[in-house]
Give the backbone structure.
Amino acid sequence: MLILSRRLNESIVIDGRITVKIVRVDGEVVKLGIAAPLDVPVHRQEIYEEIQKNNQEALTQGRAAVSALPKVPRPHSNVETKA
Amino acid sequence: MNRVETTAPQPAPLPAESTLRMPMGLLGFERIKEYFLLADPAEEPFLWLQVPHDANLAFLVIAPQPLLPDYKPELSAEDVAFLGLASAADASLLSIVTIRGPNQATLNLKGPIVMNRRTLVAKQVIPTNAAQFSVQHPLPVVQP
């Protein structure tokens, strides 16, 4: 892993198109400002991993592999009028 | 920061039986850039995100807001720009469903899929207010 020292308001440039700037240092919390093109996803690692894991759990072996779907409340049942 | 609240209830039927382009893929599935959005009336209100060229890979999805009216994910300005959303009415929300047992499932509210209904471009986003939401929110069910 490349390790660089930076001071407040200093930046690093990645691949000529992504800039990561040290915006604030407050005790153990470091705020980073990240400027990247719209097609570069930027995520907090723990949230990325949580959603990635859930996506892997959710992947099914196709429609035929799901024998019975859950029974959800009908969305608009509360506005139906009863005879 | 500009934020667009995707509070509009589903304004019109989802454009089912169409191909969604997901240039960033789903998290962990970045290489799959397209999905078929499939709907079967017998399976309403569920839909499927089917991996093209592999009928054995699919994600079960559902529009969350009819079930959870208080669910209001806020999109970052970057996601609004990426999706080219001109108004909230252009956006449709889908949540990925994980079957956990008989008549038991969870919804991923922390990483919803937002689709531009006009362009059929979609992205799995992390809302700016994601800390309020769970990746395993219990799906409301009725007992059969």
